[in-house]
Design brief:
The structure holds 2 protein chains of 2 kinds. Chain A is an alpha/beta fold. Helix content of chain A is 34%, strand content 27%. Among the domains of chain A are: 152 residues, P-loop containing nucleotide triphosphate hydrolases (Rossmann fold), CATH 3.40.50.300; 58 residues, Alpha-Beta Plaits. Chain A is globular and about 70 Å long. Chain B is mainly alpha-helical. The two termini of chain B are 30 Å apart. The mean pLDDT of chain B is 93. Classes of the chains: A alpha/beta, B mainly alpha.
Chain lengths: 316, 251
């Protein structure tokens, strides 16, 4: 039985623009199974439908069509069981200003009917570096500390399935490392983890399998290693001081002065460097590196449904 | 504690942590009304022939404070959670819509009763208070607070901004409480306005409540009980329906 199962799930929202009654399709017949014990990554640009998927899973939003199950429990029909199985870290940095950290965690335990939970709450506080903040009011905490409390709140009832919706957005390096160590430990203990993130290197390092979402559809779904294998194996990277001619720029991934070309062999590398020289530019800090998940991501997003690497999920 | 008890506890703790604002403030306001209106009108107004105006005023003020605070508790808690986004912590839990209803309305009843008792306790320093039929007092206090807590729940679900909630409070709750006979017996009104007052459910809450103190009222307490019971059942039905369908809280 899958830990999380989406079956042909669609969701339309009223369109903010356009004529009255017009809708915007946030999810278009998405099907996806995540097995127990997986560390699964859900990637996609803003507005691709990642948060909508998580909202439907968590019961915050209802799907227009299809079924979503957590450990076999339908998120609508068996919502109580489904929600007991889920621990969700929301994307927004929200908190209740009336309570301190320990009170917030005790209250959250109580909602799930978990009694005498102080031992586990202490362990959570310790593992997330919050032990000395237990009696601090939520208002007094920094953004990073509030984020840690959000994670602790999601885990008070020891859910077998953990969902993290961009948990490291705007978070410092130290917290990211603390957080990932802790989540990786829980995953080793058998918890299923579903992660959405903008940091592709995190997904690459942590996730065993990855789905890429674009305009409400899954455009790639495979083991992380397979996705990397299928991408252009090497990337030529260098810096230039002026703008590249359009013919070259169209083939490159450009970040400020940094230019990167997919290049599979020495010939391609020579041709790119020659073209740069002919354009009257000088390439500095030239290096050749292995393709990473970001290359795969951009490749899939640009090609959309034609991605060679991607395993297309057919709508049923 | 199980799920709904925790939510009830949290809702009570929420107002208790700021009791200066949520309990002491309303009690002081009621006292100011009592001192000023009592002083100005004591010698001019006689009610039910035997009851002094100040003694008449106390139950009305206590009930008005109780009703307004019961409304404020559920409505302000919900709107704050919605605006701040922390309602998500509750939405992610296995709590049922009936759990939500019982906890929010329960906390409103507790806040209403605490404020009402506070008004009496302080009023007792200024005037003698009689309790002719305590059971009627309790029944109307609890039902009135439940009704207003439920109405606050509906308003809190409906409102998206503090502004909308304030409009509900200022243009619906305030006029209906002030025009319900808190400060006067409706028998002192012209016939037309007496008729209008009989259409105001708040009138029955206050009139029935007052019966418990003096054994006299504008209408029979049984009629008041019937009207308040009917309105409470109706608004509860609406609130439970809204919670069940996730009105404005689940997309």
């Amino acid at each position: 039985m899958p830990a999380i199962s989406f079956q042909s799930v669609s969701k339309a929202y009223p369109s903010p623009r356009g004529p009255k009654g017009a809708t915007f399709l946030a999810l278009d017949r998405v099907s996806l199974d995540i097995e127990e014990g997986e560390f699964f990554g859900l990637l996609g640009p803003n507005g691709a439908g990642k948060t909508t998927m998580i909202s439907i899973l968590a019961g915050l939003t209802r799907a227009n069509a299809g079924h979503v199950r957590v450990l076999g429990y339908d998120v609508q029909a068996d919502y109580a069981q489904a929600r007991r199985s889920l621990g969700v870290v929301p994307q927004e940095l929200v908190f209740d200003p009336f309570f301190n950290v320990r009170e917030a965690l005790r209250i959250q335990s109580g909602y799930f009917g978990v009694k005498n939970n102080d031992a586990w709450i202490d362990e959570l506080l310790e593992s997330l570096g919050l032990a000395d903040k237990a009696d601090a009011n939520m208002r007094q905490l920094s953004g990073g500390m509030k984020r840690r409390v959000l994670v602790a709140q999601a885990l008070v009832h020891k859910p077998p399935v953990i969902v993290l919706d961009e948990p490291t957005a705007g978070v410092d390096v130290e917290l990211r490392q603390t957080l990932w160590q802790f989540i990786a430990k829980l995953n080793k203990q058998g918890h299923t983890v579903l992660l959405t993130t903008h940091y592709l290197e995190e997904a690459e390092a942590l996730c065993g399998r990855i789905a890429m979402l674009k305009s409400g559809r899954i455009v790639a779904l495979d083991h992380t290693s397979e996705l990397l294998k299928a991408a252009s194996s090497n990337v030529l990277r260098f810096k230039v001081d002026s703008e590249l001619p359009k013919v070259l720029a169209d083939k490159a991934r450009i970040t400020g002065r940094i230019v990167q070309f997919p290049a599979n062999d020495a010939l391609a590398i020579e041709q790119y460097l020659a073209a740069v020289r002919e354009a009257g530019l000088v390439a500095h800090d030239v290096e050749i590196r292995k393709a990473d998940l970001e290359d795969v991501f951009l490749d899939v997003m640009n090609k959309g449904h034609q991605s060679v690497a991607a395993l297309e999920v057919q709508p049923s | 504690m199980n799920g709904w008890q925790t939510l009830l506890y949290k809702e009570v703790l929420r107002f208790w942590k700021v009791a200066f604002q949520t309990v002491a403030g309303p009690v002081l306001t009621a006292m100011l009304y009592l001192l000023i209106f009592g002083h100005a009108l004591e010698s001019h107004v006689k009610v039910y022939d035997t009851v002094s105006y100040t003694a008449f005023l106390v139950p009305g003020l206590a009930m008005m404070s109780l009703l307004q605070n019961a409304f404020a508790n559920s409505s302000s808690s919900l709107i704050m959670s919605k605006v701040m986004g922390n309602l998500v912590f509750l939405l992610l839990t296995p709590l049922s819509y009936m759990n939500w209803f019982v906890a929010y309305v329960g906390a409103s009843i507790i806040r209403g009763l605490v404020v009402g008792i506070g008004v009496f306790a302080v009023s007792a320093l200024f005037t003698d208070i009689s309790f002719v039929a305590p059971l009627w007092i309790l029944v109307f206090a609890v039902m009135g607070a439940a009704l207003m807590g439920t109405l606050g729940l509906i308003a809190g679900l409906w409102a998206e901004k503090f502004d909308q909630l304030a409009a509900f409070q200022n243009f619906v709750v305030m006029p209906m409480t002030f025009l319900s006979g808190v400060f006067y017996s409706i028998h002192s009104l012209p016939a037309f306005w007496q008729g209008v007052s009989h259409l105001n459910p708040f009138f029955y809450m206050i009139d029935g409540f007052r019966y418990g103190f003096f054994g006299a009222s504008d209408v029979s307490p049984w009629l008041s009980l019937g009207v308040v019971g009917f309105v409470l059942t109706t608004v509860s039905g609406i609130a439970i329906y809204l919670l069940r369908t996730g009105y404005k809280i689940r997309g």
